[in-house]
Amino acid sequence: MGEDSGSGTSGTSGTSGTSGGTGIEVRGFRPGDGPGLVAAWCRGLPYDPITPRRFRDKVLLDANFDPPGLRVAVRGGEIVGAAYGVRRLVAMTGTDREPDRGWIPFFFVVPDARRTGLGRRLLTDVLDWLRGLGRTRVDFASYTPHYLLPGLDPDAYPQAARLLGELGFRTRHEAAAMDRSLVGYRMPAAVLRRATDLTGLGYRFATPADDDLVELLRLAGEEFSPDWAWAIRSCLAAGTPLDRIVTARAPSGALVGWAMHGAYEGRNERFGPFGVLAEQRGTGLGQVLLHLTLERMRALGAHGAWFLWTDEQSPAGHLYRRAGFRTTRTFRVLRWEDT
Predict the structure, then answer these.
(1) Rounded CA gap, 317 and 323, in Å?
(2) How far apart are CA 63 and CA 56, in angstroms?
(3) What pTM does this model have?
(4) E strands present in 220-282
(5) Measured in whole angstroms, how far is the alpha carbon of residue 289 from the centre of its chain?
(6) What CA–CA distances, in Å, run from 249 to 86, 143, 230, 236, 285?
(7) What is the domain extent for residue 67?
(8) Are 253 and 270 members of one domain?
(9) Do residues 261 and 297 lie in contact, with contact meaning Cβ atoms separated by under 8 Å?
(10) 235-280 pLDDT per residue, tens
(11) Is 261 within 8 Å of 269 (Cβ atoms)?
């Protein structure tokens, strides 16, 4: 994310240290750092600025936040960089805290502090901290439930991509962010016919009732991702209306899929999560759910629909393209492994 180049020395994990010749101290997060850190973030990550509230909600209020893991670089009383390491103190699901895994959701260096080795120093500091806690695998930046971006955008931050590669991070896969305009949107006639055909076969599309949520959360968490169940539960508990969700039931009455919007940070134009059971794919069910949700989004006044993560070459990626979505950014999902 934030860019830097050159070499540098690592501070001792969990402690303060000043790099010789630069006058930059690297230490753990302290009360009072927030405003300066947010300001520096916006300078260091110009394509992905953040607000104080988002920083609070995504980082400081995260149940896994541990101040020593957020390494802060200070020069003359001003924050000029940071790197954030996190591990699970609370299990995402069940009791598994994934004891070998850690994450680096973000790092950055402001432009006038680059080419001093600071980015390398911050990342090495965080890796040392995580390794000292027994973490042998560290992912950038796909930390759930509070990831800010799926990974690194090499087009936006080429020097950061080079630095992470030099430190041993390797690409696991790529995630595509997609957008489409909803200005003038109308459900395609072919999709409307397919919805009518499926309804005639006994499928039902509807807004879930409160009692349906138990089944929806089980489907999302067990068949897809615990993070998706967390997102649905959290947004509804925060007051997101049920009509942001469209469910699909098979003729047997079983819940077999859903699509929704507004699940993340109350952003009505953000589509997802969205899932259809594997045995129901190829029926047109996913296409109908997608367009029923887009129709609802447009009815609420949305001018566009977007999401952050899909595999462009997957069936879902092809479905989105047929529905008019286009790739707007590509992220590398990276991993470092202790050898």
Answers:
(1) 10
(2) 12
(3) 0.90
(4) 245-249, 255-261, 271-276
(5) 23
(6) 39, 32, 22, 21, 10
(7) 17-175
(8) yes
(9) yes
(10) 999 999 999 999 999 999 999 999 999 999 999 999 999 999 999 9
(11) yes
